[in-house]
Amino acid sequence: MNYYNEIKNKIIDNEVYSKIKDYSKERHKVITYFEIGKLLTEAGGKYGDNIIEEYSKKLVIEVGKKYNRRTLFRMKQFYNLFSNEKVSTLWTQLTWSHIRLLFNLDYDSINYYIQIVTNNHISVRELEYKLKFNEFERLPLATRDKLTKEEIAEIKDIVPNPIFIKNNYKYKIISEKVLQKLILEDIPTFLKELGNGFTFIDNEFKIKLDDRYNYIDLLLYNIKYKCYVVVELKITELKKEHTGQIMTYMNYIDKNIKTIEENKTVGIIICKQDNKYVIKYCSDDRIIAREYELV
After folding, report:
1. Can you give the pTM of this predicted structure?
2. Count of other CB atoms within 10 angstroms of residue 74
3. What distance in Å separates the CA atoms of residue 7 and residue 220, rounded to the nearest whole number?
4. Which of 63, 65, 89, 122 would give a disulfide with 117, using CB separation of 3.0 to 4.6 Å?
5. 253, 228 in Cβ contact below 8 A?
6. Hey, how many other C-beta atoms are within 10 angstroms of the C-beta on 206?
7. Residue partners of 234: CB distance under 8 A and separation at least 6
8. What are the structural domain ranges in the chain?
9. What phi, psi does 130 have (nearest 5°)?
10. CA neighbours within 13 Å on the CB side: how many for 212?
């Protein structure tokens, strides 16, 4: 086999195909680069590692400058990584721009982000954000194992710890009102930070308990899990009275707002410091405690 001609023909074919305004062109590009990576790996096995240097010099002249040594090395790296059976077969649904961001990750991380991109149509920019703030690494170990095995995840499995909250104005003194203000300044980012499917309903959501009004810090809804989500903000360590408070709010939503088709309300307490014993002995496993970190 003339490996160079095979690679050159695939590149030319992909260049022609990329001019077609068709949604499948990115998939064609990804598969082509994978096949080229395979050819480069086989050619290297026969003729030595310098084959990339040799081929790139000729391709730059005959096809274009972008097919330099670095690009060919990326294609070979792509094949060697994504041909491994540990990696999900869904990678063909990603764009090359998505894939390049995953090269330096381990297999479990790659599988997680492939699932996130394909299931939720995550843009390259959104993927960069998730990688920058180590979303996979912030998930509990048990959750990571469940997600990488493609087991069914509960809502508590998808909420990372800590939750990053943007502090664009560099506030040094943080109160619950300030924390709420920071969240409300960039609700879309906060919702994405919590996980998939969260939507915003209201802040300071007013409910009446007996003859007194109470206010839920944030009321959300998760479309994927079909449930309301009560969020309470605390700037202290998690305390048992916090779980009692949010449990009351959750029960109120269940009795007065939730419909029969929807699942029971979930509660998220975002606090400065978690206390595992409070959650361990909490009678309601729908309550999720997460620490916050200002970024």
Report:
1. 0.78
2. 16
3. 52
4. 122
5. yes
6. 9
7. 176, 242, 269, 270, 271, 272
8. 3-138, 154-294
9. -60, -40
10. 2
The amino acid occupying position 134 is N
What single-letter amino acid sits at 21?
K
Tokens (6 digits) for 181: 């203000």
Q: Is the peptide bond before 140 cis (omega within 30 degrees of 0)?
A: no
Backbone dihedral angles phi then psi of residue 168, each to the nearest 5 degrees: -60, -30
- In this prediction, residue 173 has a pLDDT band, given cuts at 50, 70 and 90, of confident
Please report the pLDDT score of residue 28 as a whole number.
Answer: 86
> DSSP characters for 180-206?
HHHHHHTHHHHHHHH-TTEEEEEEEEE
231 in helix, strand or coil?
A: strand
Which pair of tokens denotes residue 184? 């409300």
- The answer to whether 130 and 104 have CB atoms below 8 angstroms apart is no
How distant, in Å, are the alpha carbons of 14, 15, 117, 129 from that of 25? 8, 10, 18, 25
Q: Per 3-state DSSP, what percentage of the chain is helix, strand, and coil (rounded to 5)?
A: 50, 15, 30
Q: CB within 8 A of 251, min separation 6: which ones?
A: 265
The SS3 assignment for 294 reads strand
What separation in angstroms does the CA of 71 have from each of 10, 11, 136, 195?
Answer: 14, 12, 28, 34
Q: State the residue for tokens 């930070």.
A: 193
The residue among 164, 199, 189 whose CA lies nearest residue 294 is 164
Name the more confident of 123 and 3.
123
The residue among 239 and 200 whose pLDDT is bigger is 200
The CATH number given to 154-294 is: 3.40.1350.10
